[in-house]
Amino acid sequence: MSANARITALTPPDILARKGGDPLVCLTAYTTPLARLVDRHCDIVLVGDSVGMVLHGLPSTLGVSLDMMIMHGQAVRRGVERALLVVDMPFGSYEETPEQAFRNAARIMAETGCAAVKLEGGETMEKTIRFLTRHGIPVMAHIGLTPQAVNSFGGYKVQGRGDEAFHILRDAEAVADAGAFSVVLEKVPATLADRITETVAIPTIGIGASRACDGQILVVDDMLGMFDAFRPKFVKRFAELGEAADAAIAAYAQEVRSRKFPSDAHVFTDGRKGKTE
Ligand code: KIV
């Protein structure tokens, strides 16, 4: 490839075509610098509404606004060249009617440059997903534990155990039938995730689901060890950057207090010896 060749980003049809193929690698990102890192390695970058808890210290995703999603979507857009960029629709921005969902999804797409939106819900969102996809808005669905419904669930509990499995399977079939190009399965039993993955014709993206899913997603701050408010079982920490940051900040504080920092290497001369830092 020539150095000037234009890099083209993956599209929703590219992701759909990966059903049953090599696993899709997906992570969240909320800022430009992290988006650049994630983009190098991932097929999908999601600006998740988890941003509310991870970066803004909110107790749940319920307080996340459309403006917050758009601002973080714009930041991430500047860091993404190769991956498919998906932005979450926040709580209250799509549930009323398909028209409300279209209006807000169109604003997200126009103002962030993302190629798809994600929304939570299965059968109840079937009509909305069909409306959006027929009007040019690719949709990633999200079923199982849908964090925006945490109050109805009574906590962040595993969904789809026992007889409940049937409802989640129906949700998966409904969103696939409505035209979603992929579906996130969050915190469901592995056997159910396997069954859904075999049944639906769209890629399943697991988070606390099964290694047989067509792809996996994690919240980037979770897997980097930078978010400590709580730690679900499905999070594997691939680094402990929170601990590394704590040690670095402690060392800085110690050096400031002992006047070790800044040393000569970090201050400027008056230039009289011809130095031009
Ligand atoms: O908001 C989010 O980050 C998500 C992923 C965890 C799937 O929905």
Automatic annotation (TrEMBL):
It is an enzyme of class 2 (transferase). Its cofactor is Mg(2+). Its main location: cytoplasm. Pathway: Cofactor biosynthesis; (R)-pantothenate biosynthesis; (R)-pantoate from 3-methyl-2-oxobutanoate: step 1/2. It catalyses: (6R)-5,10-methylene-5,6,7,8-tetrahydrofolate + 3-methyl-2-oxobutanoate + H2O = 2-dehydropantoate + (6S)-5,6,7,8-tetrahydrofolate. The keyword Magnesium applies. NCBIfam families: panB, PRK00311.1. Catalyzes the reversible reaction in which hydroxymethyl group from 5,10-methylenetetrahydrofolate is transferred onto alpha-ketoisovalerate to form ketopantoate. 3-methyl-2-oxobutanoate binds at D49, S50, D88, K118. Homodecamer; pentamer of dimers. It is found in: Cytoplasm. Binds 1 Mg(2+) ion per subunit. It comes from the Bacteria. This is 3-methyl-2-oxobutanoate hydroxymethyltransferase. The active site is at E186 (proton acceptor). Keywords: Cytoplasm, Magnesium, Metal-binding, Pantothenate biosynthesis, Transferase. GO terms for molecular function: 3-methyl-2-oxobutanoate hydroxymethyltransferase activity. Mg(2+) binds at D49, D88, E120. Belongs to the PanB family. SUPFAM superfamilies: Phosphoenolpyruvate/pyruvate domain (SSF51621). The keyword Metal-binding applies. InterPro entries: Pantoate_hydroxy_MeTrfase, Pyrv/PenolPyrv_kinase-like_dom, Pyrv_kinase-like_dom_sf. Gene3D superfamilies: Phosphoenolpyruvate-binding domains. Its EC number is 2.1.2.11.
